[in-house]
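Quick one: structure tokens for this chain, please?
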Amino acid sequence: MHAMKVNVILLSAVLVLLVDSCGPITITNTSAKDTKNETWRLDVMAQNDPKDAEFARSVETFYAAVEKQDWPTTYDMRVADYKQDVLRDTYLTQMAQYGKSWRLNTYKVLNVTTFASTNGDYQAAELIMEFNENGSVSYDSARWKYRGGKWLCDEPGLGGFLTNTRIPDWVSN
């Protein structure tokens, strides 16, 4: 009976520890250059491979430009298909107007999935992201492609105004 009582107490203690340790994990980006956005998943990727570091830099540069409303930079970082559908002057005019009432406050990279070509080079990536736009939090996916030696944004996942109207080629091919 005593052994059973000890086992119950030990089991209870283990359960308390397990339940207590199952709380939400909070990991924040500790990078000095960026303390409000969470990009640690990109930072981890960047530590493993120079190609991944290039991808991480591109994503962070793009969203920093969106936060600053640096629309020429965001346009230059879009895929060729998008630029074919949306002319630069039109984009810059519309974004300047839209930016008067819209702002990206923060973003978090929640998950990154890469898609590899047959030769092993990454050719696309999808990020699951949390955005705080004008104080409203939303979740969406962002798509990136590696084209012409650069990582370019195909679909930024933001508020519906920067969306690409084409089906991603890694889905359609």
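The chain has one domain: 37-172.
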